[in-house]
């Protein structure tokens, strides 16, 4: 499901040394390139995997996509008859997601919010957090808050489904990763490096502004988690049942998995 490309040495330098560097919030400008960054993903297969995983529990139709990005997953699920709410911390991502939903003529309740403390009067039957959203939580306390909040938002018997990137994936693909893209708006250069000690992957996106000697820079930091840590997240939560699966095979996850799909259920 996941494909990576163009690796450069770890000492690769950014696009150009510019005089004026504007440090901006993650996905402030990258939001407009996000679908291009994700265009290697077959969302239809991803949706089929999700449906396969939740099917044994026969969940009802109120779903929440927390950290929804530009809404691609939420839109596909809405087209399958689900009542979707889609939330992201980036207002720029939500604006694009709303435009895409309008073009596809599907109704989705969009909101700007944080996965840790998003609140709603609506209780949900399934909550999904994909696109490596959980890896943006760098502290165990924040992960515990996220899981507790998701638990509070679920109906009895509700399902929480999220994915987690592992150190193996980061060491394999992101120890000196470089990508350059140009378009009519200028484009970007991405440099990603992974530190196996801290298990932090730092992606720096340098984006052209169209102005001489000026660039925008977004820095994205994610943390990779081992299977033992994910097991501890689940065991310390209020969820009574969970599974940790390999993202590719959907079999039980192991230390050889590059990404986990984690499925938790609230007691009926």
What do you see in this structure?
The protein is an alpha/beta fold. It has a domain at 37-167 and 224-265: Vaccinia Virus protein VP39 (Rossmann fold, 3-Layer(aba) Sandwich), CATH 3.40.50.150. The protein is built from seven helices and twelve strands. The protein has helices at 34-37, 43-54, 72-79, 91-104, 140-153, 167-173, 227-235, and strands at residues 20-24, 62-66, 83-88, 108-112, 124-129, 154-165, 177-181, 188-195, 200-208, 214-223, 241-246, 259-265. Helix 2 packs across helix 3. The model is unreliable at 1-16 (pLDDT under 50).
Q: Describe the largest sheet.
A: 7 strands, mixed
By DSSP (H or I, 4+ residues per run), the number of helices equals: 7
Q: How many individual β-strands? A: 12
CATH superfamily of the domain at 37-167 and 224-265: Vaccinia Virus protein VP39
Q: Structural class from helices and strands?
A: alpha/beta
Q: First CA to last CA: what distance?
A: 32 Å
Report the portion of residues in β strands. 25-35%
| Rg estimate, integer Å | 19 Å
The name of the CATH architecture of the domain at 37-167 and 224-265 is 3-Layer(aba) Sandwich
Q: Any idea of the CATH class of the domain at 37-167 and 224-265?
A: Alpha Beta
Shape designation:
globular
- Rounded average pLDDT: 91
CATH topology of the domain at 37-167 and 224-265: Rossmann fold
């Amino acid at each position: 499901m996941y494909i990576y490309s163009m690796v450069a040495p770890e000492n690769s330098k950014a696009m150009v040394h510019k005089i004026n560097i504007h440090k901006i919030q993650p996905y402030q400008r990258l939001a407009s390139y996000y679908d291009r960054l994700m265009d290697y993903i077959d969302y239809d297969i991803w949706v089929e995997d999700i449906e396969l995983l939740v099917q044994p529990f026969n969940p009802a139709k109120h779903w929440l996509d927390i950290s929804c990005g530009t809404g691609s997953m939420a839109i596909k699920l809405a087209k399958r008859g689900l009542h979707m709410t889609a939330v992201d911390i980036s207002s720029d991502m939500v604006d694009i997601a709303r435009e895409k939903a309008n073009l596809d003529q599907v109704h989705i309740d969009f909101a700007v919010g944080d996965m840790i403390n998003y609140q709603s009067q609506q209780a949900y039957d399934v909550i999904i957090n994909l696109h490596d959203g959980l890896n943006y939580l760098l502290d165990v306390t924040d992960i515990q808050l996220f899981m507790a909040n998701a638990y509070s938002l679920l109906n009895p018997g509700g399902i929480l489904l999220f994915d987690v990137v592992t150190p193996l994936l980061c060491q394999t693909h992101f120890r000196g990763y470089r990508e350059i893209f140009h378009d009519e708006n200028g484009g970007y250069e991405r440099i990603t490096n992974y530190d196996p000690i801290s298990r932090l992957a730092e992606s720096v996106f340098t984006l052209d502004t169209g102005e001489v000697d000026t660039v925008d820079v977004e820095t994205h930091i994610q943390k990779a988690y081992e299977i033992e840590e994910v097991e501890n997240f689940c065991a310390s939560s209020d969820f009574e049942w969970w599974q940790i699966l390999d993202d590719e095979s959907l079999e039980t996850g192991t230390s050889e998995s590059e990404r986990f799909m984690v499925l938790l259920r609230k007691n009926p």
